[in-house]
């Protein structure tokens, strides 16, 4: 347990993600050697949003590094919904593409849920399709959203069996909070989901053996909200002004999580840093999902990747 003279173990998501990408690359190479099947991921990006451009470039580079086919479709932000749906239809029908990811946000003239709903659920490597949300809810195999999947892998790596642990998830979005709750329930945790209407959030958090923060509010969760020895997964990615006033005046920024790390690290038993914790796991799990989707499409049992 951490205390004034001790510090929490730092959960190195960057290193774990690098290992996962290597395992996916090795499994994909064996799949190609034994079955002539190369997993393929298509990423669709609409418009010029700089953050999305960076994410998409990283995804493309990591996919290619893992020895997979990587197609990026860059579309003007004037594209119509019908044109985008037609592209999704073409990718659904392409036997060489096993994963389709449409980068969000989409421009205002496009109904995001209609586009995400048009993706073949068996190629939905983001795991956002209602069919995959339903499969997760009832415990059927399917494609699971990458960020909560990666967070669960880090927890199992850190703690082993999660059975019976009290897990508190702060945040109830469809892409992080809710699927995280389903995954931890499947690991036999006792799960509480907190949100903006929850009463006495600090007290709820203090009951957690596992605390997952997915709020989008910089350093909201303080050290004294954390049970001594708890394992803290900080999903938040928030850009705030640099801590150095001179740099801040120049408009320089830094990235912080939803947890006040400097405080939490003296109380928690283990914690993910931001950056370098959950973030790198998201792309690694996208590749794992693409590999699994390729295997399932061909009726081949995928290798286990969560070593
Ligand atoms: P959303 O904005 O969709 O959801 C935020 C959730 O936090 C909501 O459920 C909201 O409650 C809750 N919330 C907001 N304010 C409070 C509060 N004061 N007290 C308690 N709960 C509150 O965010 P996402 O789930 O998409 O993302 C969460 C964070 O994770 C963001 O920082 C995002 O950048 C990051 N993220 C990181 C990823 C990664 O790769 N590491 C991937 C995806 C997200 P309510 O429902 O009541 O409004």
UniProtKB/TrEMBL annotation:
Domain Tetrahydrofolate dehydrogenase/cyclohydrolase catalytic: 11-126
Cellular component terms per the entry's GO annotation: cytosol
Occurrences of domain Tetrahydrofolate dehydrogenase/cyclohydrolase NAD(P)-binding (ranges): 145-296
One MF term in the entry's GO annotations: methenyltetrahydrofolate cyclohydrolase activity
Highest rank taxon of the organism: Bacteria
Enzymatic reactions: (6R)-5,10-methenyltetrahydrofolate + H2O = (6R)-10-formyltetrahydrofolate + H(+); (6R)-5,10-methylene-5,6,7,8-tetrahydrofolate + NADP(+) = (6R)-5,10-methenyltetrahydrofolate + NADPH
Pathway info: One-carbon metabolism; tetrahydrofolate interconversion
EC number: 1.5.1.5, 3.5.4.9
BP GO annotations: L-histidine biosynthetic process; methionine biosynthetic process; purine nucleotide biosynthetic process; tetrahydrofolate interconversion
Assigned keywords, A-Z: Amino-acid biosynthesis, Histidine biosynthesis, Hydrolase, Methionine biosynthesis, Multifunctional enzyme, NADP, One-carbon metabolism, Oxidoreductase, Purine biosynthesis
InterPro entries per record: Aminoacid_DH-like_N_sf, NAD(P)-bd_dom_sf, THF_DH/CycHdrlase, THF_DH/CycHdrlase_cat_dom, THF_DH/CycHdrlase_CS, THF_DH/CycHdrlase_NAD-bd_dom
Pfam family, one: THF_DHG_CYH_C
Residue positions binding NADP(+): 171-173, 237
SUPFAM superfamilies noted in UniProt: Aminoacid dehydrogenase-like, N-terminal domain, NAD(P)-binding Rossmann-fold domains
Protein family membership: Belongs to the tetrahydrofolate dehydrogenase/cyclohydrolase family.
Function recorded in the entry: Catalyzes the oxidation of 5,10-methylenetetrahydrofolate to 5,10-methenyltetrahydrofolate and then the hydrolysis of 5,10-methenyltetrahydrofolate to 10-formyltetrahydrofolate.
Subunit: Homodimer.
Protein name per Swiss-Prot or TrEMBL: Bifunctional protein FolD
């Amino acid at each position: 347990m951490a205390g004034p003279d001790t510090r929490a173990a730092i959960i190195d998501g960057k290193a774990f993600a690098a290992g996962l990408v290597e395992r996916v690359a090795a499994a994909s190479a064996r799949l190609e050697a034994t079955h002539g099947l190369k997993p393929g991921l298509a990423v669709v990006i609409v418009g010029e949003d700089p953050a999305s451009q960076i994410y998409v470039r990283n995804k493309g580079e990591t996919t290619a590094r893992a020895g997979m086919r990587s197609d990026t479709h860059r579309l003007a932000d004037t594209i119509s919904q019908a044109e985008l749906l037609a592209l999704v239809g073409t990718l659904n029908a392409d036997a060489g593409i096993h994963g389709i990811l449409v980068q969000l946000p989409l421009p205002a003239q496009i109904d995001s849920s209609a586009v995400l709903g048009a993706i073949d659920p068996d190629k939905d490597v983001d795991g956002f399709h209602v069919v995959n949300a339903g499969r997760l809810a009832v415990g059927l195999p399917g494609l699971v959203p990458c960020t909560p999947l990666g967070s669960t892998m880090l927890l199992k790596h850190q703690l082993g069996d999660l059975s019976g642990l009290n897990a508190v998830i702060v945040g109830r979005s469809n892409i992080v909070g809710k699927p995280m709750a389903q995954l931890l329930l499947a690991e036999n945790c006792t799960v509480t989901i907190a949100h903006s209407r929850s009463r006495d959030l600090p007290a709820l958090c203090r009951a957690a053996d596992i605390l997952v923060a997915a709020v989008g509010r910089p350093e909201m969760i303080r050290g004294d909200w954390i049970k001594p020895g708890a394992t803290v997964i900080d999903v938040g990615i928030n850009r705030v002004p640099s801590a150095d006033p001179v740099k801040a005046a120049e408009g320089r920024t830094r990235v912080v999580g939803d947890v006040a790390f400097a405080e939490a690290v003296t109380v928690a038993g283990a914690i993910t840093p931001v950056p370098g914790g959950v973030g790198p796991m998201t792309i690694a799990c996208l590749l794992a999902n693409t590999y699994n989707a390729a295997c399932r499409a061909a009726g081949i049992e995928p290798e286990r990747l969560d070593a």
